[in-house]
Amino acid sequence: MYITPSRIKYLLRQYMNDNCTGEEVNELMEAIRLGCHDDIVVEFMEENILHLENDGQPDLPDEKAMVIYKKLLPLSRPACFLVKPSYWKRIAAAASVIIGLGLYAYLFSGGENKNAVLSSVIPKIVETDVAPGTDGAMLTLADGSHIFLDSSNNGITVAQGATVIKNLNGSIIYTAKDSGSAVMYNTMTTPKARTFQLTLADGSRVWLNAESSITYPTHFPGKERCVIISGEAYFEIAGDPERKFIVRAGDITTEVLGTHFNINTYKEESLQKVTLLEGSVKITAGASDLVITPGTQAVFSQGKLKVNNSVDVEQVVAWKNGAFTFRQTDIGEVLRQLSRWYDVEIIYPDGIFHKLVSGSMGRDLNLTEVMQVLKGLGVKSKIEEGKLYVSQY
Questions:
Q1: How far is CA 64 from CA 71, 223, 246, 348, in A?
Q2: Helix (DSSP H) and strand (DSSP E) numbers for the chain
Q3: CA distances from 168 to 156, 162, 179, 197 (A)
Q4: First to last CA, the chain
Q5: What is the pLDDT, as a whole number, of residue 142?
Q6: ∠ CA(336), CA(386), CA(137), 5° rounding?
Q7: Helix (H, G, I), strand (E, B) or coil at 388
Q8: Angle formed by the axes of helices 331-342 and 367-376, to 10°?
Q9: Which of 132, 223, 247, 321 is the most core-located residue (most Cβ within 10 A)?
Q10: Cβ atoms within 10 A of the Cβ of 188, count?
Q11: Cβ atoms < 10 Å from Cβ of 203
């Protein structure tokens, strides 16, 4: 890709004035990513950003500076879709230029025209927005009663086969009673827009993604520790060489002794996947079985079980670490993840599945902020009547 210095200046000014098309935003960010004429970009910044104080902070009232910053943030967030570590200095420089240009537009306008300039730089407020998901789940006890953990007080105790304590961070810990007591089963369920963490009676830790569930005993007697899940869960299994840990999910069964792994068995996804981060696991599906090693993934699809040796583990567990990460992911899967996390129906044309996107963003963004990120990827969207309508540029 070659881009002239005048073209870069044009694109920066277009974005500053909120006149960039989707294609122009992509062109600008690709030029920054590739480092096209870095000297021109730096020179442009030095020539135009004259009203920044020595510490780099804008000489503006905090509230006005924040408004401008939020306008410019959507462009810097798509920049964070760059993956290689060597890009980060360029990303930081680009963000500085972009923020500075917004301030330049404000500071160099005449006093009576500042409102007009701000109205062109600051996006119109969207009346409808959707907050991101948060921690929370419903605990179903052995007798069928329910406890909603979004609103329950910390320190909750349930005496049905175990002691259950809810921590300050919202997670719960089971403490097993004596091994001779009756085994009772609980189910933890996360709806859309919720995740949850629990520690089982054997000390194993489980993270549930949105729209998922796990059924488990209140204590683990006998020679096996067995749980059943749906949706997606991340496990850190407490080591116990005498008792293997078994996870049944969809069509696959995973057996371990002590390890870290992720299971994804959402019904709407075409693949069922077990990704191993640490240790060793045995996967069984029908008459087939295989053992995978750290950094690999077992994939079950159309009755066949195979190993994926080129899995991106960081992408797989991003949800557990509070992020969305995509690497050449079809937009359909991206939108399904967003639908689960924001609990919103997403309407999109069939042809959009052919578009692949790469990038990362926090799961703490409001939906309108996510829409700006999608725009930077060439995907246009709008909220109407509580639904997100998506179309391809």
A1: 11, 64, 55, 36
A2: 9, 23
A3: 11, 19, 28, 12
A4: 21
A5: 85
A6: 60
A7: strand
A8: 170
A9: 247
A10: 23
A11: 14
Instruction: Indicate the residue type of 129.
Output: D
Residue with tokens 């850190």: 236
Cβ distance 284 to 253 under 8 Å?
A: yes
Amino acid in position 93: A
Q: Which residue has the tokens 């407020």?
A: 125
- Strand 252-256 relative to strand 281-285: parallel, antiparallel, unpaired? antiparallel
Q: Do residues 230 and 212 make contact, with C-beta atoms less than 8 angstroms apart?
A: yes
Q: Is 84 exposed, middle or buried (0-12, 13-18, 19+ CB in 10 A)?
A: exposed
For residue 33, the model assigns a pLDDT of 57
The closest of 234, 263, 258 to 248, measured between CA atoms, is 263
Mean pLDDT by 10 residues, the chain (393 residues): 71 68 70 62 51 41 40 37 34 44 37 37 50 89 82 61 67 70 87 93 94 93 92 95 93 91 94 94 92 94 92 94 89 92 88 77 90 84 88 69
**What confidence score (pLDDT) does residue 129 get?**
83
Q: Are 392 and 349 in contact (CB under 8 A)?
A: yes
